[in-house]
Amino acid sequence: MARYVGKSAFNDGILRISVEGGAYKITFDLQALAAKMPKENLAKFDFPPFTLLVKPRGEGGWDVSSDFSTSGSLEINDLTGPRRAQIAIRDGKFTGVYDSELAAFTSGASSTAGMTMISHLP
What's the pTM? Predict the structure, then answer.
């Protein structure tokens, strides 16, 4: 995977891969990514890491699933002042089949029980 995203994504903790049961667990840490942004952007992220479970299929594809239930916040400061958003996703689920040769999903389904977003603008 480092071939596609670069080794620094792993070295900086933005991406991690581990084994969970019969699948690979890919963890994407938004806060580690935000830490790499220039400090003058003054963006703040407060989200837990996002995870995917991927399992190889016989024909070279991958079964992909995720529980993306989450809550967190984002704040960006610009010349007009701080812009803040709080986001909560309840019971978010995703399943799909990824084809490595096509570099695309050949199928997928997603559902949520609900999503709430509260934004504050100057």
Answer: 0.81
